[in-house]
## 1
Amino acid sequence: MNIKYLALCLLAITACSANNGSNGGECLSDKGWLFMGKGPYTLNTKVEAAPGEASFCLVTDLSLMAEEPEVVLRANVTVAADSTICVPLGKLEPGFYQVRLRDSVRWNIGVRPLDVVSPPDARPDFDAFWKQTFEELDAVPFEPEYTVVPEFSNDVRTTYDVRYTSLGGATAGCSVCIPNAPGKYPVLVQYMGYGAPTFRFGPSDNPERIDVLVSVRRQGIFKEADESWVTQGVESKETYYYRGAFCDVRRAIDLVASMDKADMDKVVAMGESQGGAFTTVAAAIDDRIDAISIAVPFLGDYQDYAKIVWWPVHEVLDYTDANGIDRSDLYETLSYFDVKNFAPRVSCPVIMAFGLQDPTCPPHTNFAIYNNLGTADKRFVCVPTCGHAMWLEPDWPPVRDTFLSPWLK
């Protein structure tokens, strides 16, 4: 985690403002830093700082990568003996802001995230491009090959490594855990984060469902070394890594549909970070998915992304600058893979979780996706003190599992 955010581990929250209403979402653990009402707002929070006078500054998240961030409020405040501060913020525009206290303690707050505007910028041939891409995919013989993994199999469920061919002849696949008893079973499809280590489902953990962990090309069970997948082939939309990876995402649903024991009326998908992006894309391109859970979704709103944090967009910018690719051409290419441009095509129920302190997939980019979702059946949850590692938050899985439970019975 970025060192600027380490102080967050030492912060505790108290109630922030009477204007913290609930409108399509909620905070898990507390409601300290997310303002849902129209203001004016007051920040009332406990900090890890010595009592006494302190400088206070509030800057916009969309200027964090600028040489001079945009300051919307400066004040001198008093840290009370109990380490609390109380700061009138007035009325703020919808969005996300970074608090800077004495230039040593920093954290983010959010204001009316449902009103954050980041309209889709899909090019006119967006749908045609993906239609042609999936037609090319459909022309590739599927022919999945199942290999039993004995150490993760028992008399309840059997685990298989499954490999199949995807777009361009690339290998993709899944780790699949299937009940041994006859019958039809609901299916949970899980998409993995960027370069995340693979794992296996416990064969006795979910005896009444099929679990599928998806590995796209050169990641997951096919990963041999860390790579910069985010820059590979970015010279054009036809060659970009994520064109093939999004095909791998859909081919996983083809695998599910080919399973005799899969109940295709009960298929849900979930993922965090890159997995959240893949899950959103899967629901956008494949109506065989009945509901999704996404957390801290990646690959959303590239141009604003570059204004907030360095990675991943600036890695792409550095790569393309070094290779003489014009930035306007780059952003046009990336628009075909921007998850916010897939979001309007999602029609199933969605739950999204985000960490207010996320330095990797910042909240603005999460809501660029969420606010453009085509479904009206959606809700979000916020963990105010969480950074990117939503999978480590104990309060999130129970909420996610409750949301998905109607389709997994």
Note: Confidence is low (pLDDT under 50) at residues 1-23.
## 2
Amino acid sequence: MIKGVNRQVVEVAETGSDYFERALFFVNPKYYGLTDGKLREKAQTLMSVAGAPPKSKQKTKKSKMKTALEIIVSAAAGSLITLISSMVF
């Protein structure tokens, strides 16, 4: 356990994540009396539910291309509608 000025910190070195190699948890002062083992257990539990960001939040090259294609198709459709409406009226 690392003790700082008026703070207790639990460091988790094995996060189980490809994204993060270490995590620091600042202990709430009302739980300073808990044992080191109990604090580490709570930190590990929190790490296990944190996991990786959801896939919907990760931008991939494929999703960027899809978005670009949708913009191009929408612009082309708008231009076509404008052209047709100007020919009719």
Note: Helices lie at 36-50, 61-88.
## 3
Amino acid sequence: MTTAIYYDELFIEHDTGDSHPEAPARLAKIVHQLRRHRHWHPFFQEITRHATDGEISLVHSPEYVKSIAAACENGVLQLDADTWISEKSAEAAKLAAGAGLQAVAAIMHEEFKNAFCLVRPPGHHAEQDRAMGFCLFNNIAIAAKELLCNFGLKRIMIIDWDVHHGNGTQNAFYDNGNVYYLSFHQWPLYPQSGLQEEVGVEAGIGANKNIVFPAGTTALAYMDKFKTEVEKSFQYFQPEFVLLSAGFDAHINDPLADLSLQANDYFEMTRLVCDLAQQIAQGRLVSFLEGGYALTALSDSVEAHIHALNSA
């Protein structure tokens, strides 16, 4: 089988409230649509592990990891202006990170060609010691650390096409030349980071690249830039494994941004990344759900993403 989808009903129990953009309904809508269109049972894989505190602490401080568990146990509802939690949030966050660890191991062991982690809470805004932007633990950064530390890979590429810059992911590897972070995002927009001049420091110089789009950028202009920069980055870095922060909030209908992509664009973007991964990285690719807040647009875009992954 080409593609695996990692999912668990526990993610629905990360309760941010129905009025919050990053609500349980996001995953419920995606799963319903994939099941209705018979894109579920051939791909679904049970998540069999949580990330341990030690694994999470490769990215986050141990004190921060403990603080998230304590906040959930003590009934804290809000970590910052945007990030809400509930009793099950810490457990869901550990399972989301565990899904990434399980997925990259499965790809390395050649059980699947690629995988999609249909998880929440999302991760790319989470800093070393701070929850941000709906995110608790940085799922994709934890997976990258697993590939570096336990599988001995030397060149990991992270492509982040969420419409908001992944500040947490960038900062996790800003001085690390073994991880190439390539972000496509609207600017200015939350979290107000991700300028083009942010290129890394020390050993990480040249392994961080931000591609910014002003509000109102057309899909054609976005796609032309995406194709050029992704191809250029693959040729430059020659990754051994590709991780993808797959937010779908650059969609024209998304309420939190002002770009113009549609579901078919996400199909084409996925196919391009898969084709290049096949040429250069032995096809190894794991993607993680990040943003996307218009439910129909989100579910249509995820379905297109899965279709492209499975046709790789």
Note: DSSP finds nine helices and eight strands in the chain.
## 4
Amino acid sequence: MAEKKDRNDKKYEGMSASKAKRERAKDERAAAKRSAAMTKVIAALVVIAIVALIGGIYGRRWYIEKNKTVASEDYSAFLNDDGTIKDLNVSDYVKTFDVNSVKIAAADVAYTDEEMQEDIDSELEEHKVLNTEKTLEVKDGDEVNINYVGTIDGAEFDGGSAENYDLTIGSGSFIDDFEEQLIGKHPGDQVTVNVTFPEEYENNPDLANKDASFAVTINGIKELPELTDAFVKENLSEHAQTVEEYKQYLKDTNYESKISEAISKYITDNTSADKYPGDYIKHLKSLQMTLNEQEFNYMSQMYAAYGMNMDYTSAMEYKGAKTTEEYEKILQDDAEKACLQNMAYQDLAAQAGITVTDEAYENFKKENGVTDEVEEMYGRPYIIQQYIMPDLVRDYIKEHVTVE
């Protein structure tokens, strides 16, 4: 410490003791002033930082509130009569491809024999026939048609009876081992099935943990019919008259479906944009908010119809957002996707020289049941942009696509 003191005191060497004391006191006062001044500067900077932080928070809230999306039902705003976007050269924003040079892999549109058989089986499933042959035996996995009457302590109870009910054995759709007790039985058999309701039975709490007896009549076993010319003619005559014609119909329709899906995917995969038109994006966010609210209200009504409550109280929550800022981000993303699609189809339509005629518009309305009320709500421009123009673009590409 002595060494440190000596270094600090060099300034006062050669002075008389009284003068050194005065100089030292003067320096100490100056140091104290500098320290006080620095403290004030630091305090001021802290205050400024706090004010800036608070201002930033409230400023951001003000900005978000000021620019918060407001739902709109003006679907055809920002659109010309022909469905194109007003005052916008889409080629300045969207990057597409040569509409006449689309190539799709044959594997992406192939309709395999396995897929055909699945479609045939699905159709036959819709036309199952009831076999009442008494020598048949009910097996696990069979679909049986039954009548049943349920009783508890000898008295019938609500919901415990039905006629001509189709039950798949092993599905677990009936309580306890109801289904298993029918295995080995035959069409025409009358069977007594004894079961115990679960301890917690939400469908009817009054029946919980009670023993019940069901008088069951097995009407028959449902079986798949055979695909024959007679079956086709009787059940599928709107498509074909013979098995071969029906198989060709499946090939044709599935190819059309697959090629349309492949073209839609090609368009999505091969279009992009580095920037978006701000005013149009804002409009699309407003439309998306309206669509979200419509979907939320529809789902709420569906839940209510089945006596259930939704876990969400607003469209914002339904779309997975916890805050307004999060919801704005979701709306922005959805608007950009919609904008990209709209610009892409407009660009491709221009390449192909596609325009929507009055005749094409009226045909679309007629074929799709577009009423005057629907047309008034959405507007002709929006209907053209969202439905007619994309269909015409996909049809054009389908006519010019190379499948290899």
Note: The CA atoms of residues 210 and 308 lie 26 Å apart.
